[in-house]
Amino acid sequence: MNRSTFFSVFGWVAAIILIIFFGFVGSIKFVGWHVEMTQNFLGYFERFGLNRELMAIVGAIETFSAVTLVLYRRHWIASYGALGIMITSIGAIGFHLIYDSVAEAIPAITTYALSTYVFSQNLDILKAKFAPKETTEEQ
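Above: the chain sequence. Below: its structure as C-alpha cells.
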C-alpha cells in the first residue's frame, strides 16, 4: 500500500468512526432517546455549569456534523461537519480539563484529532467550491 492510499483509507476510517460515534452520542444529547445515557451526559453538563438546553444544542451540532460527514470526499458540506466536531471537541476538552482530569479529556482529544484530519482531507473540495472563479477577458 502506497502512502497516498494509506492516508485516503485512514481518512475514511476516521470519518466512519466520527459518523458512528457522534451519530450515536449526539442524538442522545439532542433527543434523549436513551434515558440512562442522557442522565449521564446531563450530569457532566450540570457539573460544568451548563443546562439541558445547551446539551441539546451541542447534541444537535454533533448529530448534524455526523450526518454531513456521510458526504466525506464527495461534497464540501462535509468540511463543515468536521469543523462542527472540532469545535464541540475543543469545548469538551476545555471543560474536562477545568472540571475533571486529563484522562476524562482523552476521548475529546481523540475526536478533535480525527476531525481535524478529516477536515484537512476534505479541504480541497471546500476550496474548490468557494474559490473565486477565473474570468477570461475577451478582447
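The first helix runs from residue 3 to 31.
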